[in-house]
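Re: weekly structure request thread

Next one in the queue (189 aa):
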Amino acid sequence: MTAPPTRRSDATRAAILRAARERFAADGYERATIRAIAADARIDPSMVMRYYGSKEGLFAAAAEFDLRLPELADLPADRIGEALVRHFLDRWEGDGTLVALLRTASTNPGAAERMRTIFADQLGAAVARTVADPATAARRAGLVASQILGLAFTRYVVRLPPVADADPAELIAWVAPTVQRYLTGPAPR
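Done, posted below.
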């Protein structure tokens, strides 16, 4: 039995999303154009509009992102911070979608909302499964996000040399203890 052939519209949508993610990552939301994305996908701009309706609709589809977090509850409690920082550095290094979303979130309210939703839903749920006091889970997840997003902004958007040039293992060694404290340290009174 063979798999059914990929429909042409599925292939076109995939090409548009791939081109959009790359273009948004390279140019940011404001400078990326439907025309440039269509050229990158080797299709007519009207096809982008047909499938996504607008630049905003295309960005929303391109910004769908699964953080693919490891199952934190399966890890030793004292290694969760390190695992999270390593995981996020691997994701940022290998996927321009998060970089594009981060860059765009600083100037576009829709992108900022998308980033909030991704981190609140995905990271928030993962942290909630690991903390002793569920009442502190959202705060702890937010603080972890502040470190992860701050690191990413500094390394991939601003490209501050001491951080942008650092080896990932060194960054993990610096940042993981702070993330670990947010996750397992006592809550302030």
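The chain has ten helices and no strands. The chain has a mean pLDDT of 90.
Next request, please.
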